[in-house]
Amino acid sequence: MSSRSMWRGLHYSAKRRILTPQTPYRCFSCSLRAQDQPSKPNDDRMTHFGFNNIRESEKESMVGAVFSSVASSYDTMNDLMSLGIHRLWKDHFVRSLNPGSALPSKYPSSPNGWNILDIAGGTGDIAFRMLDHATNINNDHQTRVTIADINADMLAEGKKRSIDTPYYNTNRLSFMEANAERMPSVPDNSVDLYTVVFGIRNFTDKQAALNEAFRVLKPGGVFACMEFSKVDNALFNAVYKRWSFSAIPLIGQLVAGDRASYQYLVESIERFPSQEEFRDMIRKAGFMIPGRGFENLSTGIAAIHRGVKPVERAE
């Protein structure tokens, strides 16, 4: 079945679903408008959407529909899908970056704390952790985070959650709707730390996003990414894939009323480059790679990647 036929079938099924006020339903496929968009110059270039091959011009709309559908249940589903382990990964990720600490003098930073750009961070899960760490661990009340996300519904969820934090309505936390592959509103050499957690696998052009990360980071600034990756134990990998492809879409259907979105998410994990391939993409963007370039978490279910913008590359 073609990807277009699949989405039409989903749309037809969604229209027949009985809705009740107690169970609000956000139609995953109703907002997929890519098929109706005017032809663009890159329409002939193909990419993947899960296991389906689609035109590049269609992917942004299709991914946007997924995250609009799952925004309100996103973090709850992460708890269920990972059995809560994603919280431990995120805590470790933030501790390893140590936001708000003093940076070596050869890596110049703002005298008013770190300027952090958290990409695809709509719900605020990483941003709130980084601000908590800077404030409570390093006694830094100046470090600030801009949460950037291409999806307005994810940003709305983050803004709602920020109300319960000490950073609400302060200059330490801001939100920006932006495409990570092109961010003209972010100046060159202006960011101390660029983070992207469980988001880059959904980008249409990952290399373009890495190039843009390099542009906005200051000399000596750090690119840090945590993403699902390749398990390095064959037996555990078999168990993990059975869980991913059987249980996760079912949980999505039962909890979020949306099986198709979570089917896409597990397929997008499978299609993401290996640790070594992604490390080489980061290097290609111009970053220096410390050590082997990545740290596996839980035998490679997820991996942390880092790159440093060389000081000598500054204009």
Give short descriptive properties of this protein.
315 residues; Rossmann fold; 7-stranded mixed sheet; 9 strands; disordered N terminus
Topology-level CATH name of one domain: Rossmann fold
- Main beta sheet strand tally, sense and closure: 7 strands, mixed
Average pLDDT: 79
Low-confidence stretches: 1-42
Rough shape? globular
Catalytic activity: a 2-methoxy-6-(all-trans-polyprenyl)benzene-1,4-diol + S-adenosyl-L-methionine = a 5-methoxy-2-methyl-3-(all-trans-polyprenyl)benzene-1,4-diol + S-adenosyl-L-homocysteine + H(+)
Pathway: Cofactor biosynthesis; ubiquinone biosynthesis
Family: Belongs to the class I-like SAM-binding methyltransferase superfamily. MenG/UbiE family.
Subunit structure: Component of a multi-subunit COQ enzyme complex, composed of at least COQ3, COQ4, COQ5, COQ6, COQ7 and COQ9.
Task: Please give a structural write-up.
The protein is of the alpha/beta class. It has a domain at 85-231 and 274-313: 3-Layer(aba) Sandwich (Rossmann fold), CATH 3.40.50.150. It has a seven-stranded mixed sheet, sandwiched between helices. 39% of the residues are buried. It is built from ten helices and nine strands. Strand 3 (115-119), helix 5 and strand 4 (144-149) form a beta-alpha-beta unit. The N and C termini lie far apart (51 Å). 42% of the residues lie in helices and 17% in strands. It is globular. It has helices at residues 3-16, 56-70, 74-82, 85-97, 125-136, 152-162, 206-216, 234-256, 259-271, 275-284, and strands spanning 46-49, 52-55, 115-119, 144-149, 173-177, 191-197, 217-228, 294-297, 302-308.
